[in-house]
């Protein structure tokens, strides 16, 4: 009997991918804000 079903594995991979995407978006947004602040000063 496998430890994880194929559905659980697929969901885990999708979840990890979603977390990576969210981090990527957050990092990009932070970088944009920092650049805007630098342009102001």
Question: Can you walk through the features of this model?
Answer:
This protein has 41 residues and is mainly α. It is 85% helix and 0% strand. It is built from one helix and no strands. The chain has one helix at 6-40. The radius of gyration is 18 Å and the shape is rod-shaped. The relative contact order is 0.09.
Please outline the helices and strands.
Layout: H1 6-40
Number of helices: 1
Helix/sheet category = mainly alpha
Strand content: under 5%
Instruction: Describe the largest sheet.
Output: none
Shape descriptor? rod-shaped
Mean pLDDT: 90
- Overall strand count: 0
* SSE ordering: H
The stretches of 5 or more residues where confidence is low (pLDDT under 50) are none
Separation of termini?
A: 62 Å
Report the helical percentage.
Answer: over 70%
Computed CA radius of gyration, to the nearest angstrom: 18 Å
Describe the structure using short key phrases.
41 residues; mainly alpha; single chain; 1 helix
Task: Offer a quick outline of the entry.
With 41 residues, the protein is mainly α. It has one helix at 6-40. It is rod-shaped and about 60 Å long.
């Amino acid at each position: 009997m496998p430890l994880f079903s194929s559905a659980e594995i697929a969901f885990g991979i999708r979840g990890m991918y979603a977390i990576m995407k969210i981090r990527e978006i957050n990092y990009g947004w932070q970088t944009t804000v920092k650049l805007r602040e630098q342009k102001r000063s």
